[in-house]
Amino acid sequence: MSKCEQCIIRQLNSIKHLSREELVKMTNCKTSRVVKKGEAIFEEGERLKGIFCIKEGVCKVSKMSENGRNQIISLVTRGDLLGERSLISDEASNLKAVALNDMQVCFIPKEEILKDLSKNPNFTMSVLKDMAQTLKQADNVIVDMAQKTVKQRLAETLLKLLDKFGTNAENTIDIHLSREDIANIIGTATESAIRLLSDFKKKKIIEFKGKDISILDRNELDKIAQGF
Amino acid sequence: MSKCEQCIIRQLNSIKHLSREELVKMTNCKTSRVVKKGEAIFEEGERLKGIFCIKEGVCKVSKMSENGRNQIISLVTRGDLLGERSLISDEASNLKAVALNDMQVCFIPKEEILKDLSKNPNFTMSVLKDMAQTLKQADNVIVDMAQKTVKQRLAETLLKLLDKFGTNAENTIDIHLSREDIANIIGTATESAIRLLSDFKKKKIIEFKGKDISILDRNELDKIAQGF
DNA sequence: CGGTATCTTGATTGGTATCAACTTAAGTGG
DNA sequence: CCACTTAAGTTGATACCAATCAAGATACCG
């Protein structure tokens, strides 16, 4: 079993504030797990027994709306923690997490995390800061959803994806999302997203390589996102 | 100066987890302030030097969108804390808070709160729980904004307002919001909100007493909110 | 009492959802 | 290797919803 003390991923999140001693304990109680593309890490309504630390891969975190459509709330990647909130508020998860590609995640049992939270103020403060940050972003998303058009949101989403995942050898955004996934991020019907993507392509703002998207005119996307 | 130890409001939020000693210190450094209706407690972009504890009254917390419209993110009332997030993430506030009626608020300096956070795990944990809860609600709002129609959102908002503020002697929702405020909560143009309110009135789901709203058929609003 | 803000309604335009049909891509089993 | 199945992507036509502009009504305030 690989040791948390030696894990590089740890440096990327709040776990970096744990002491050597705490890390040793964590190594002893954590379990590793491989999650295949498309597989769920947890379901909406499930009671989580711990949190997940993403070692490799990306997953979409989503929530079902009352009308039966799926809304993707965030994309969680290498170095992120997943499930702290449900654990802290001690409620069933309100979200579902599904792997977008093959993943490696570590599972850390609830008791261990709660113990660390109660004994290590630096750790707690770090989690608190993360959460404050997430909340701020959530506010921004609310404003965008409430006041921007689908076209603006699509442009913005493409830019965010580019910044978060960068580009691969073919110059396409280095994460494969289906058209439906994209629609579920911006909160629209799949056909609408497709139509707008198609518009962007005609205007040479983006192009397709296979199904993947390559951004040609970042500047123009910026303008569209801001409403021109 | 009134004493935090004896303040009833304290029981309503995380401050209840502070020790007697900590409360005495807080009494000595806090300041009280009256905020008139329409006045701002703080502005977007302002660097807060502490947090606010709402003793009396209600304020709207909002954010300007890039297209120049105002989105109300939440309504903060008696017993709530305000400004913890900016303080924790140590950034300028991303939000603006404006009084909806005359308010009494206490201001607690940053240093005092940070000291309590670093020394009292119960307090920190309580703040953390609050924030996890807020984040969960934010997720719900995102889904609603992304996927519900304006009509659904209006119905939902009316129900939430009713639950949060109750009714007064005239059986109207016990908080006065302008039509514009309502529109800014549901994220639509003022005229659209007015039109839909007018529809609801015609269908005898609500009625107006002056400008205030009285809910006649809660059941019907529930149905509309869920998409029928 | 005039001026201003808020509220209200109508007409028009544009954006988005929905339904339906078709294409392409990716398996799967004979 | 081909025929079949299924999922994903694409496009057009239509109808509905909501934003915007314009104009009038009502309440509020100095």
From TrEMBL, chains A, B:
<keyword id="KW-0805">Transcription regulation</keyword>
<dbReference type="GO" id="GO:0005829">
    <property type="term" value="C:cytosol"/>
</dbReference>
<dbReference type="InterPro" id="IPR018490">
    <property type="entry name" value="cNMP-bd_dom_sf"/>
</dbReference>
<dbReference type="InterPro" id="IPR000595">
    <property type="entry name" value="cNMP-bd_dom"/>
</dbReference>
<keyword id="KW-0804">Transcription</keyword>
<feature type="domain" description="HTH crp-type">
    <location>
        <begin position="148"/>
        <end position="219"/>
    </location>
</feature>
<dbReference type="InterPro" id="IPR012318">
    <property type="entry name" value="HTH_CRP"/>
</dbReference>
<dbReference type="Pfam" id="PF00027">
    <property type="entry name" value="cNMP_binding"/>
</dbReference>
<dbReference type="GO" id="GO:0003700">
    <property type="term" value="F:DNA-binding transcription factor activity"/>
</dbReference>
<dbReference type="InterPro" id="IPR050397">
    <property type="entry name" value="Env_Response_Regulators"/>
</dbReference>
<dbReference type="GO" id="GO:0003677">
    <property type="term" value="F:DNA binding"/>
</dbReference>
<dbReference type="InterPro" id="IPR036390">
    <property type="entry name" value="WH_DNA-bd_sf"/>
</dbReference>
<dbReference type="InterPro" id="IPR036388">
    <property type="entry name" value="WH-like_DNA-bd_sf"/>
</dbReference>
<keyword id="KW-0238">DNA-binding</keyword>
<feature type="domain" description="Cyclic nucleotide-binding">
    <location>
        <begin position="14"/>
        <end position="134"/>
    </location>
</feature>
<dbReference type="InterPro" id="IPR014710">
    <property type="entry name" value="RmlC-like_jellyroll"/>
</dbReference>
<protein>
    <submittedName>
        <fullName>Crp/Fnr family transcriptional regulator</fullName>
    </submittedName>
</protein>
<dbReference type="Pfam" id="PF13545">
    <property type="entry name" value="HTH_Crp_2"/>
</dbReference>
